[in-house]
């Protein structure tokens, strides 16, 4: 997966494809990258239904909150989250894990699930390990 010489874009796309295919409760998997000049997140590679939310201001929605805090966020029931941007009515839960480079937020992985409260500490740990490897590409 982490072949030398593979572009960052391709690596992120491959990670999305594998995670969506292998993990039953992952229904939409994508990366948002920080655009520092505009203080917003820009959608990178993803797998799942197209989303209107290709640009998200830092602070807005679950994704924007993680960009601001640099901390993972698990939302087991999106209907109970006030600061949430709905992408699809099928989505019940969401996990967002930051990619940190030298203690600075650079990107995040965002996963939507059609299952209710499917995420455990294992998801966070596993996705955190992936994001640590991804950080080397920034
Ligand atoms: N639900 C996210 C928006 C991105 S979509 O899930 C792809 C949020 O609240 O930030």
Word description of this protein:
By secondary structure, this protein is an alpha+beta fold. It has a single domain, classed as 2-Layer Sandwich (Beta-Lactamase), CATH 3.30.450.40. It contains 3 helices and 6 strands, in the order H-E-E-E-H-E-E-E-H. The chain has helices at 8-22, 61-69, 121-135, and strands at residues 28-35, 40-47, 55-57, 73-75, 93-101, 104-113. Strands 3-2-1-6-5-4 form a 6-stranded antiparallel sheet, with helices on both faces. The mean pLDDT is 96. Methionine sulfoxide is lined by residues 28, 51, 53, 56, 61-64, 84-85, 87, 94, 110, 112.
Could you outline the blueprint of secondary structure elements for this entry?
Blueprint: H1 8-22, E1 28-35, E2 40-47, E3 55-57, H2 61-69, E4 73-75, E5 93-101, E6 104-113, H3 121-135
Antiparallel strand pairs: 1-2, 1-6, 2-3, 4-5, 5-6
The site of methionine sulfoxide has 14 residues, from helix 2 and strand 6.
What tags apply to this protein structure?
6-stranded antiparallel beta sheet, alpha+beta, globular, Beta-Lactamase, 138 residues, 3 helices, binds methionine sulfoxide
Report the bound ligands by name, code or SMILES: methionine sulfoxide
What name does CATH use for the topology?
Beta-Lactamase
Distance linking N and C termini: 17 Å
Helix share bin: 25-40%
| Secondary-structure element pattern, one letter each | HEEEHEEEH
